[in-house]
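hiii, so i know i said id send this last week but things got crazy w the move. better late than never?? heres the sequnce for the chain we talked about at the cafe, plus the structure i predicted for it. fair warning i was half asleep when i ran it
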Amino acid sequence: MINLKPSEDIVPMSEFRNNLSDCAARARKSGRPLLLTQNGRASYVFMDLAAFEEIREKIEKMEAYADLLAAEGEADRGEVVSIEDFEKEIHERRAREDHKAKSKTNRSRSM
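okay and structure toks below
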């Protein structure tokens, strides 16, 4: 979780522009993002790449966990397909795609 310290991490855009190197060093050292304001309103977030990657990884894990929970719910409700039916469906889809590709190739040749 990112803990924003308002007294240290809220920076007006003009100060950010004038002190970019200092702001970048501060974000890198603290590991916290800077909240940039424009006309007194929050407008942008500036953060160190390592902190951004950490957040992105956490989001990806949360999305995967949400997918697992949804799949468990489907299984609990009996919304499942046997492996045989799944393999049959995949085989049928591939056959349809192959047929479409062949038809498209044949039409191109006849023009």
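btw The chain has a mean pLDDT of 91. thought thatd interest u
miss u guys!!
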